[in-house]
Amino acid sequence: MPRARLRAEADVAEGRLVQVLPQVCQREGHLVLLYAKTAHLAPTIAAFRDFLIEQLPRPS
Length: 60
Hints:
Blueprint: H1 3-14, H2 43-55
């Protein structure tokens, strides 16, 4: 289970977060992050990219 889900479980249990569209929740799939390749990548984009790489399993 991804660490992000583990961190959110307490908030879901307490009602601070709710699952949106549970009927379309997919447990497997592909994610593609597209961004413009520039000499100076915005720090927010780099941080989001790095977060995804750290949190999501690599396809085998």
